[in-house]
User: Fold these one by one.
Assistant:
Number 1:
Amino acid sequence: MQPNSPVFFLDKNHGLMIREMLRSVGIRVFAHKDFGWRHDLSDIEIIHQCAEKGYAIISGDKAMARVPHERQAIIDGKCKVFMFDDTGKTRTEDWIASILVGRQRLVEIVQKTNGPLFVTIKACRAKGHIGRPDFVEKAGGGWRSAEEVADIKPMALEHPNQPKARPQQGKFEFPSPKN
């Protein structure tokens, strides 16, 4: 994991399998359980905590974009929220695949934008499974300027435990032909 890489918060509805898989490829992600929060902590409190820490939110709760007090907390906190499209119909493994395939795009959106914003993540089996940001422009959401983005070092997300290439073990010498 790179020290300046974005940090994601995964809501409690998605278990630990997604969290562990994302960590295994170097994505900095925390879940409700990592903080020892009460199991009944309200969505508003979670949104405030994520805003305070600067975490992007990954959630299956699309209502956050519609419920007035939750939407306002996201706007006030300038949060970046990624929402799974159909959590009731799609297996956890498909959501993992969506995030793994689209992780560079997720990181790019977090690094190159100002919140507040909402992004839909579709199941990996769907074409274009990472949606375009739906910026809350009146509250300052939008793409960052070229100058702001120029200082961000591109982040290569590679498997942190990937083995290094082995050095060549030796040369095979062919005998010279005898005439």
Number 2:
Amino acid sequence: MPQGVGGVPPQPGPAPVAQAGGMTENVASALCYLAGIITGIIFLVLAPYNQSKIVRFHAFQSIFFSIAWIILSVAISILSAILLAMSSAIGILISLFHLVLGLGGLLLWLFLMWKAYNNQKFVLPIVGPLAEKQA
């Protein structure tokens, strides 16, 4: 048996509470981010999960993050295409910036899923407070 501080066995933490559907809140929260808008809407509609304030927060944040990400990506793609058509060196830099931004978005998406799975609430700037109001 593992020993805690001073030879006292460590106390187990609280067990995650399973919803009526069998999924715990942390798993449902992480899955809200899996397919962005789609899974966000699914968890806002599914009966046992739409009652949980934390799952609703992650669902709304996932939806708002996905919409913002799509808008930003399309805007940078259009700007990059216009500048590349003009055969500008700035167009090449914008294209490289778009690649770096895409990698950053992927890492942020994975980070949000990880935080939600670990029962930690990470509030993104701008879209996070909107999600808190909706939840």
Number 3:
Amino acid sequence: MRLVYLDEAGTDYKAPVLAVAGVLVHGDLEWPEIDRRVCALIDKFIPEADRSEFIFHAKDIFHGSGYFDRRKPQWDHLDKRILVLNELADIIDDLHLPIVLGHYVKDKFGAGVLTAEDGPKKRGLMIHGSAAMDCLVWADKWLAEYAPSELATVVHEGGAATSALIKRAVRVLRHPGLMTKAGMSGMDQQELSLPLKRIIDTVHFADKADARPLQLADLCAFVLGRALKDMPIPSRAFRIIWKHLKWRQRFKAIAPASSERHPS
């Protein structure tokens, strides 16, 4: 059984790109090691008094905000904080975790479907839901190619305003009749590997402290989201993440509506 852990970046209305990204984790073979190694990094970088329910937030680490306030002597230089991001990325690399990604440029999304009256909130919800759907299509494709005897369930970072939409999307993408009712019958379902065949159950929403692989999904979403906006990124962490995303290059672009451009 695989677990697909997803998180998002770029939900702020000012961000030009919204990305959802995540990692596929083998529940028996890889989950315990991820949990152990994240805990080990907490022990390594965080004083004992602060370790209870500690969470690595890539955005705070990179920008020197929150717990990693750059005004603190231990976090005053970017190089110190980049080391934390690199060691989180090393977990992905050492365990060879496949990465999935869905993303959209916000001002190009929904042309001919959404209107100015729909507003940025509705647009943001639909973009987030669509990017999450793309991740599930890619995850289903990975399972079909590399673990055809396995199924997967999905864990998304908790608190997403789009939770009902994402749950509904999974239900629709698993059922040909619901896809037809949703106006998706004209899609090349064979090319897109639809309906989903290996994503089971509903999407579960969890806190990063309770599901530590979500902290790796957070890293992926943050780094890839910045790369897609051509913003400065932690280069070593990006190279690791990109290496484990490149498995998609052997397939045609299958995400339902993405026009993906890959960072070089």
